[in-house]
Amino acid sequence: MLPPYVKKTCEDIKSLKIQGAREIAKAAVRAIVEQAEFSDAKTNQEFIAHLIEAADALAATRPTEPLLRNAMRDALRFMFAQIKKSKTDDVATLKKKIKQEASRYEETMRKNKEKISEYGAKLLPKKCTLLLHCHSTTVVAIVKRADEMGKDIRVICTETRPRFQGRMTALELRDAGFDVTLIVDSAVKAFMKEIDFVLVGADAITSTGELVNKIGTYGIATLAYYEDIPFYSAAETHKFDPLTLWGNAEEIEERDPSEVADPKEFRGIKIRNPAFDVTPAKYIRGYITEIGIIPAQGMLNAVIDKFGLRERD
Ligand code: RUB
């Protein structure tokens, strides 16, 4: 049975109260720790089963989130490895270890963001107008770091229909003192002449270097490509989806039609609401990652170098 905190975390992720790949993964890891603390397991096997139940529920909240899935898989792998390594560990010890592992994960995430913001901020021109889409904590961190470096940054944010996460970005950067302009998603072309650089986040990176990000990203990337404006995605390498290496296409989450329009007012009309789209590598100048700035086609090798990905058995 899932404790209330874990259930609430699942609901908050599904409803976008917690949104953005990093925030989702961090919240899910905290929920795993909560599940561990709540567990009344008498044996290690029972304890692992409780963790798996929570990890499965959390991983299923949003289908297009490999960072979340990778975090859940890593937490379980860690637990299995601990049990295998130390035959004497009891449930109380395992509870302590998963908590320590969660703190280590948070620390890694914090360091990754710091490195990405440093590299991304250096990459931006000294004076520039940026186009941002949706709400990415990684992108916001880069913009703020660039300002700290003394760069003169102006920002244009799409509002990002249907859930308007771009407005969150606009408000956050306005509060941080930036010159911010908010536009509707369909106005991007009209502003391309003003834009020097496009910066977006990432939900998933596939084995061929494709970027899966908020719906509308593909259109912005192609426009940027044909207008010769640099288009970069800021993402930790852990957003790579290993399943894509073995032939699985990244599943695109389709959300409730009522986020787009009230179905009662549009009877007889199909309303579709895909949350993400897929941008091919050729439109992406590079990924800004914690290990550096990497061309989209080079992401697979970078990930293999870092995580030692091997053939699937
Ligand atoms: C958010 C979104 C963000 C990425 C990256 O979509 O597309 O660009 O998740 O965010 P949603 P971060 O609002 O549907 O979750 O850089 O914070 O991981």
Give your account of this protein's structure:
This protein is 46% helix and 14% strand. The protein is an alpha/beta fold. Helix 2 (21-38) runs parallel beside helix 4 (66-85), helix 2 (21-38) runs antiparallel to helix 5 (91-123) and helix 4 (66-85) runs antiparallel to helix 5 (91-123). A 7-stranded mixed β-sheet has the order 3-2-1-4-7-9-10, sandwiched between helices. A 3-stranded antiparallel β-sheet has the order 5-6-8, with helices on one face. The structure holds ribulose-1,5-diphosphate.
Topology summary:
Layout: H1 4-14, H2 21-38, H3 44-59, H4 66-85, H5 91-123, E1 127-132, H6 137-148, E2 152-158, H7 165-175, E3 179-183, H8 188-191, E4 197-200, E5 204-205, E6 211-214, H9 217-226, E7 231-234, E8 276-279, E9 286-289, E10 292-294, H10 299-307
Parallel strand pairs: 1-2, 1-4, 2-3, 4-7, 7-9
Antiparallel strand pairs: 5-6, 6-8, 9-10
Bound molecules: ribulose-1,5-diphosphate.
Fill in the keyword field for this structure.
10 helices, 313 residues
**Percentage of helical residues?**
40-55%
Global mean pLDDT: 96
Query: Structural class, from secondary structure content?
Result: alpha/beta
What is the number of E strands?
10
Percentage of residues in DSSP E strands: 5-15%
